[in-house]
Structure formats: structure tokens, C-alpha cells
Amino acid sequence: MHCFRLGGHRLEIERASLIVESPRFIIGSGVVALGPYSDRVQHERFVLETAGSVDWFSTVEVDEFRFDVESGLLRGVALRVPEHTVSAGRCAEGLTQVEELRGAPRLIDIANFQVPSTASRLFEQGALMCLTEGSDQGSKDPVWVNIAPGLSLLIVGGDYAGWRLKDAASALEDSDNHPPRAEIDDELVRGLEEYLELTSFPYSDRIFDADLGVREKLEGISQRLRVDVGENRRREILVAQIDRLIMDWY
User: Which of 10, 19, 84, 248 makes a 20 to 30 Å CA pair with 222?
Assistant: First the structure.
């Protein structure tokens, strides 16, 4: 049985278990979530009924990993998307050609703790990958653990080292709702990649300074996505997020 450490606590992979819920990339919050997140009341109830990592009362950014208090099995996550990027190249290639397991992490000793958010991100071939500090500087026995459809945790040297959301555009959401899956076109994937680049550091600082060059690029993405938008809910979500960003800072 595969084991790993998360926030200083030991977990094992239950191969017979898998979260069937699809993850949501809540673009406005910059969070990938499994379980209730956008609805404050439901989220608070969920946290109180589970154990693990939570960002309440934390002075640093913390990712949520919530486990069933009886079985110890993972029930939900809320993973922040960091602002800083890491170049793809060898890093992406090295982490995509490794073993992938399927199963649900189980917390061996029920406890509350904190897991710092990942430090950097990259977007490669439609997948969003977020890594902990130093996890891209070589690896020892890396393995991916697929915990839910399209969402995997990266384990390096027996420690949690990040996560990956495949086909990130297909998971775009603005709430806890699960609308019917729409066909994901190349323009949407390209638009999401450009949006993530423009909202990464140091572009994010230029947005806060109302840089008109960045605004022009954001508007260009929005205009392209509005063409033949039809019933593509994911395109609408990304367009609405870009519009809110422009309204808030320009």
C-alpha cells in the first residue's frame, strides 16, 4: 500500500475508493474545489463535520484537505492557484511521464493541521499543474495519485508536492453548481492559458496599477471568446470573470 505525508501527517492510498464528484475550477476565487466551497453556510458545515487542513484563523495561505472523521477518507479539497509561474520545459515533461495511481487518500490518525498552499503553477497542454516550493528542482520517486476525475496529487519522495487538474477548461465554474459538461474548444483552452498568464506575477501587479496594455490583452481574450459563444457555459464563465476583473481595476 502506498503511503505519503501531508502537513506532517501520514496518509495511505485506498485503491478501492475514489471520489466520483468532478472538481470545479472556481475561476473568480482562484480555487479548485471538491465539496462545498462557494456557499459559506454549506462550507462551514462541511468543515465542522470533517477533519484535516483548513485555512481558518491562519496567517498564511493554506489549502484545505478535509477527511471523514470516521473512515479517515478524503472527502473534499479547496486548492488555491498560486500567482507565480514556473517554466514548463523539462519540469512538465518530467512530471507527466511518471506512474499514476488511482485511489482516495486516508488520514491514518484523525487530526486538524495546516497544509501551505502551493508556490508556483504552470499550464501545459490544457492541464493546470501547481507545485510546492522546490518540487520542480529534481524529483525522487514521483507518483501521481488520481483522487477524482481529472484531479491528481503529486507525491515526491513520500511527501505531498502539488496537484494537477487535467482539462482545466472543462472544470471552469463560478459557483458550487455542476452544469452539463460542454464541449471544450481550442479557443477556450487558449483563452484560459492567456488569462492565467495575465493574472500571474508580475502581470497581476500591472493590473493593480491599471496598466492599459494588460487591459487591452484581457479585452482581446474576451472579444475572441464572445464569437460563436452559443451555449458554451464555460466560455461565458471566463468572459464574465475577465469583465469583472476589468471593472474592478480599471
Answer: 84
Q: Exposed (0-12), middle (13-18) or buried (19+): which is 159, by Cβ within 10 Å?
A: middle
Give the Cα separation of 213 and 125 in Å (integer): 26
Entry field: residues in the chain:
250
Q: Which helix (H) or strand (E) element contains residue 148?
A: strand 143-148
pTM: 0.91
Cis amide bond preceding 202, omega within 30: yes
The answer to whether the CB of 62 falls within 8 A of the CB of 49 is no
Q: Give the distance between the most distant pair of CA atoms in the chain.
A: 54
> Could you read off the pLDDT of 217-249 as tens digits, one per residue?
999 999 999 987 667 889 999 999 999 999 999
Q: Residues 6 or more apart from 244 whose CB is under 8 A from it? A: 28
* Strand duo 99-102 + 143-148: pairing: parallel
Q: Helix, strand, coil proportions of the chain in percent (round to 5)?
A: 30, 30, 40
DSSP bridge pairs for 141: none
